[in-house]
Amino acid sequence: MFRKAFRFFRPGASLLLSAVLIVPAVQQKGCDKGAAGKAGTPSAPAATGEFDSAAEERAVRKQVEELRVAFESKQVSGVMRAIVPTELSAYASFEDQVSDLMQATAELRLNFRSANIQLHRAEGPDKLARAQVVVDAEMVYSLKANRTQEKRRTGQLQMDLIQGELGWRFAKIEPRSFFTP
């Protein structure tokens, strides 16, 4: 039936017909994207330089959660990837401390409850946006030497983050003694 309906087209004409039908549809989709971008989609704040504090707070919370998951998964590289090496003082010793914690524990669970989040906009083209997060932290773990005895540690952690090309990353985590096995 399809051949009967379009039997008056020559084989080369199907390419022309495709172009006539598809190009306007693609152009319309491009126009829709442009209008949507101006109407306030996620790309609009970046284009205009606006600071969407609600979206940035969600991004900071997500980064804190990803750090927690990296600790629970016992992924030293995942924890250290979330940190800016040039910003964190004594980066190498903190990496050793995290590695020792991962190697010494048989099981590790962390609970973070955000107590306070403060966002600071970038003040100029050479400055980065910053965030300070205070979390109530609880770590429950068992050492490989004595798997049956569960240990519990609670405390309040202060974490400073900066927003760079790779998104929000940690520049400070205090007190670091919280992560000592």
Helices, strands, pairings?
Layout: H1 2-5, H2 13-38, H3 43-48, H4 53-72, H5 76-81, H6 91-104, E1 105-120, E2 130-143, E3 146-164, E4 167-174
Antiparallel strand pairs: 1-2, 2-3, 3-4
Brief descriptors of the model:
181 residues; alpha+beta; Nuclear Transport Factor 2, Chain: A; 2 domains; 4-stranded antiparallel β-sheet; 42% helix
**Architecture of the largest domain in CATH?**
Roll
Radius of gyration from the CA trace?
26 Å
Could you estimate the helical fraction of the residues in percent? 40-55%
What spatial form do the alpha-carbon principal axes imply?
Answer: elongated
The residue-averaged pLDDT reads 80
Q: Helical segment tally?
A: 6
Tally of extended strands? 4
Sketch the topology as an H/E string, one letter per element.
HHHHHHEEEE
Detailed description of the structure:
It is a single chain. With 181 residues, the chain is an alpha+beta fold. The chain has two domains: 13-49; 51-179, Nuclear Transport Factor 2, Chain: A (Roll). The chain has six helices and four strands; from the N terminus they run ααααααββββ. Strands 1-2-3-4 form a four-stranded antiparallel β-sheet. The longest helix is centred in the first third of the chain and has 26 residues, at 13-38.
